Amino acid sequence: xxxxxxxxxxxxxxxxxxxxxxxxxxxxxxxxxxxxxxxxxxxxxxxxxxxxxxxxxxxxxxxxxxxxxxxxxxxxxxxxxxxxxxxxxxxxxxxxxxxxxxxxxxxxxxxxxxxxxxxxxxxxxxxxxxxxxxxxxxxxxxxxxxxxxxxxxxxxxxxxxxxxxxxxxxxxxxxxxxxxxxxxxxxxxxxxxxxxxxxxxxxxxxxxxxxxxxxxxxxxxxxxxxxxxxxxxxxxxxxxxxxxxxxxxxxxxxxxxxxxxxxxxxxxxxxxxxxxxxxxxxxxxxxxxxxxxxxxxxxxxxxxxxxxxxxxxxxxxxxxxxxxxxxxxxxxxxxxxxxxxxxxxxxxxxxxxxxxxxxx
Length: 360
Ligand code: XIL
Description:
Mean pLDDT: 95
Number of strands: 11
Low-confidence stretches: 9-15
Distance between the termini: 42 Å
Strand content: 15-25%
Bound molecules: (3S,4R)-3-hydroxy-2-oxopiperidin-4-yl beta-D-xylopyranoside
CATH architecture: Alpha-Beta Barrel
Radius of gyration: 22 Å
CATH superfamily: Glycosidases
Order of helices and strands: HHEHHEHHEEEHEHHEHEEHEHEH
Largest sheet: 8 strands, parallel, barrel
CATH topology: TIM Barrel
Shape: globular
Number of helices: 13
């Protein structure tokens, strides 16, 4: 035996003993954009198996439900901040960029908000006063701590016109600019966003570009557009995603990918009855679906990296498949596989593929 051999063995053993630094999303994309996840109450309260994974992988968080009008302001004059306080404390404890979601939406908003008495619509001045009070109270409470807000969520219809909602019907078109003004008054340093889905499709994108150009021309303090990113395996194409980022950047806006996930199940609609054909992979995705998901995430992240000069953040809508909202929407009780971590929190091949797209 030559003297060199034991030295080599020692070196090998020493190398194996050194813990390999965990590859994480937040480290991989540092310098490009933040990477985040939406957390539910169990996760930000530290009671869920995914909490440690979220802390390890992400440097920004969004509240899946905790800051929506319903949970925070369930009845007139009554605010409930216990969940939201824990959410913000969790983000601060882990040095994360904390996002607020959302101030104005047509869903998860109690009926009383739009009524003067049960069954009778409120008038414009009443609803504007409620909106101002809500935004001042919620944004003001977390001033300087929640760094960016999805101020208005999903205000557009698929044809690019303004969605018909009680906000529009009662206040009129300026409910959008008013919401941004109120949020800016409550925290002048907070970043303010317009957030929506399907903006990669031409008609809705054109409507969003019109809306945002109009807001900017009026001097409304909107910093970024949030592309939710609830996508499917094949649509919208990564090229359409890239073109959409370019189109908003050309208006002088920053872009957030705010709610990314990839629905791998057959298309369904709200109200469809659950049936086996709509839930084909209860035991896990077959290899061809796993491969398609890997290729899809690789293509999306290659696009994000190519457009990183315009992107501030890429946030997944959930941590692992176990608690994804897509198990329950649009049809309850399905088994979807939309995220980078499986039900046990194990990284999928898509996770490695995403890490490989990171700029070196
Ligand atoms: C979803 C949550 O994930 C669910 O838990 C809740 O039941 C419904 O809302 N677009 C949005 C998010 O802006 O707020 C939605 O979150 C998903 C679609």
